Amino acid sequence: MTAVVLLLAGSAASAESPAAERPTAKNLPGFSHGNVTVQGTTLHYVRGGSGPPLVLLHGWPQTWRKWAKVMPALAQSHTVIAFDLPGAGSSSIPADGYDKVTTAKRIREGVHKLGFTQVSLLGHDTGALIAHPYARDYPAEVVRMAVLETPLPGFGLEDVYGISFHLGLNQTAAPVPETLIDNEDVPAYLGWLFSSARHPDRIDQAAYFRAYARPERRTAGYDYYRAFAADAANNQANAHKRLPMPVLAMGAEFAFGPFVANSFSQVGDDVRGVVAPDSGHWVAEENPAFLTACAKLFFGPQGVPAPSPELTDCEA
């Protein structure tokens, strides 16, 4: 459970301007950056590939770039769209609306403005918490959903609050965390979180330190945490709206493991539990090969057999 420390969140990181995130794209041939205006804010995204749309939603304290190791392979069969969550990365910072229902509506509007009305979703950490109300409230628009490394508020997340102080700190009302974590404290704070990974050296920590360096980006990240109580109440009030689409619920061997599937099974009818081997909380960076193989099976055509037993539950 030590890696559960890394748990959740939502968005928090960012750059001074859209250009600050863009150097990574030079390593992703075929991908391009864009921006779309939604509900009074602007979402930054990176898009590439062709085929059915697959929307990627990151968590805290990261940005779209957390998916960089898996995006090229996924783009071989899908139109991949990796958003920066509102307030994170190169997206603008809304004054409010960090609850997951509002954020899901913003992402959905962005998807529609990009010309898609039916998508699959892949969310990690807080991105998974946003994918849930998107799929729950608009089930006809979500073909499949994969959620990585978090239980849901109201259905298990509260049970891990005592494991790491950051879960309580980030939820504390302003200006407490804003005052305690100053610009020069960011590498120590986030570095401590990343040190709990199975393979911290595989995470581009410096990029996230830079992304999280601005105070207003930190506040946006905290606000995703501060909304957890409201998220839990909303999830419980809408628990009768069960997810009808296939849901891949992946936990990491050295973090949540089967806990993710246990949580989402309470709100979904077709939940497949998978454990990512040799990985901590940041599966897309710590074991991108496994995540890529699993996602290509799950989001691919039905009837394709898994090449190994550990991927059996990833089959479409």
From TrEMBL:
<feature type="domain" description="AB hydrolase-1">
    <location>
        <begin position="52"/>
        <end position="288"/>
    </location>
</feature>
<keyword id="KW-0378">Hydrolase</keyword>
<protein>
    <submittedName>
        <fullName>Alpha/beta fold hydrolase</fullName>
    </submittedName>
</protein>
<dbReference type="Pfam" id="PF00561">
    <property type="entry name" value="Abhydrolase_1"/>
</dbReference>
<dbReference type="GO" id="GO:0016787">
    <property type="term" value="F:hydrolase activity"/>
</dbReference>
<dbReference type="InterPro" id="IPR029058">
    <property type="entry name" value="AB_hydrolase_fold"/>
</dbReference>
<dbReference type="InterPro" id="IPR000073">
    <property type="entry name" value="AB_hydrolase_1"/>
</dbReference>
<dbReference type="InterPro" id="IPR000639">
    <property type="entry name" value="Epox_hydrolase-like"/>
</dbReference>
